[in-house]
Amino acid sequence: MDAVTRIAMDNIADFANSKPVRPERRLAERRQYRTIWISDIHLGTRGCNADMLIDFLDHVDSERLYLVGDIIDGWRLKKKFYWPASHNDVVWRLLKRAKRGTDVIYIPGNHDEMMRQFTGLDFGGVAIRRKAIHETVDGRRLLILHGDEFDIITLTHRWLAHVGDAAYEFMMALNRWVNAYRRFFNLPYWSLSKHAKAKVKNAVEFISNYEEVIAEAAGARGVDGVVCGHIHTAEFRVIDGVEYYNDGDWVEGCTALVEHFDGRMELLHWADEIAARDLSEASATEPDEADIEMLAA
Ligand SMILES: [Mn+2]
After folding, report:
1. What is the CA(17)–ligand 1 centre distance, in A?
2. CA torsion through residues 23, 29, 35, 36, sign
3. pLDDT of residue 18
4. Is Lyase included in the keywords of this UniProt record (predicted)?
5. Average pLDDT, the chain
6. Terminal-residue alpha carbon distance, the chain
7. Of 134, 137, 133, 50, whose CA–CA distance to 94 is shortest?
8. What separation in Å is there between the alpha carbon of 70 and the centre of ligand 1?
9. What predicted TM-score, i.e. pTM, was given to this entire model?
10. What is the per-residue burial (b if ≥16 Cβ within 10 Å, else e) of 79-89?
11. Distance from residue 158's CA to the centre of ligand 1 (Å)
12. Using an 8 Å Cβ cutoff, are 70 and 40 in contact?
């Protein structure tokens, strides 16, 4: 371990005791889950939807939290340092919940592969693991891994992965413009690349191929299912009797996978939740007919 890393690790406890720029909302209002899985946050990039993730973290709590990789984007940070206060606030919230007693398991991905050297270590209440087995409350065993291990492009053509990365970066920039425009006209968040991906035949094939390969590998290991991230496509499918879950990402889809206390699994689409909340708040402030009648009388 080098000196810089040691200093960083020593400071983690102090960091959780510091104050975030954006204060947390009250704990009592939070929805409770047995388990939460999130991945592909890509802190350190402009594409990261830190604001939406902060909103999510302030509304939910769980006994256990899995960080399923690509939490920090080391590839991008190496090229250009980008770290706004909101990204610090995400890290603060994650460490804070570990400190409050949530079981936090961090499985680094390919974009934060520099964290893989700490596999087996626990710091700041966060356990760093290469993969994990999660047992649901009704006894199903799920293999948890980031998933780049099964992505043939990142495995065999590292340079191509970087080209894909540049194209992806461009797409994300376009996504930000589209959504800045939509915000201006009070339209809800809309994922450009999510819609583009569904239209491109190759992308569709790549995704279903990836899902099948991972499910098959999990089945061969004798587990009931697999939870991964990596391809930024939230999904739940049963493939040859193996449950395949992908928790999505916080760049495009803004999704999380949760396990309820009865073992039921659910994909939360947080942009939709925010839109629904905004709508109900808007209708709550609009006077209904009875109020109007009272005013008239
Ligand atoms: Mn990845």
Report:
1. 30
2. negative
3. 77
4. no
5. 85
6. 76
7. 50
8. 5
9. 0.81
10. eeeeeeebbbb
11. 12
12. yes
Angle at 90 between CA 96 and CA 9, to 5 degrees: 60
Q: How far is the CA of 105 from the centre of ligand 1 (A)?
A: 17
Measure 192 CA to ligand 1 centroid, in angstroms: 19
Question: How would you list the strands of the sheet with 242-246, edge to edge?
Answer: 132-135, 141-144, 225-228, 242-246, 235-239
Q: Is residue 176 very low, low, confident or very high in pLDDT (cuts 50, 70, 90)?
A: confident
Provide the edge-to-edge strand list for the sheet that holds 103-106. Answer: 122-123, 126-128, 103-106, 60-67, 31-38, 255-259, 265-269
The tokens 């589209």 sit on which residue?
178
120: left (phi over 0), alpha (psi -120 to 50) or beta: left
What is the per-residue pLDDT across 269-291, written as a single tens digit (0 to 9) for each? 999 999 998 888 877 765 555 55
pLDDT tens-digit profile of 47-100?
999 999 999 999 999 999 999 999 999 988 888 889 999 999 999 999 999 999
CA distance 257 to 277: 19
Query: How far away, in angstroms, is 148 Cα from ligand 1 center?
Result: 6
Burial class (CB in 10 A: 0-12, 13-18, 19+), 35: buried
Q: At what angle do helices 50-59 and 270-285 cross, to 10 degrees?
A: 70
Centre of ligand 1 from the C-alpha of residue 43, in Å = 13
The CATH label, of 3.40.630.30, 3.40.50.2300, 3.40.50.720, 3.60.21.10, for the domain at 3-24+36-279 is 3.60.21.10
Distance 290 CA to ligand 1 centre (A): 54
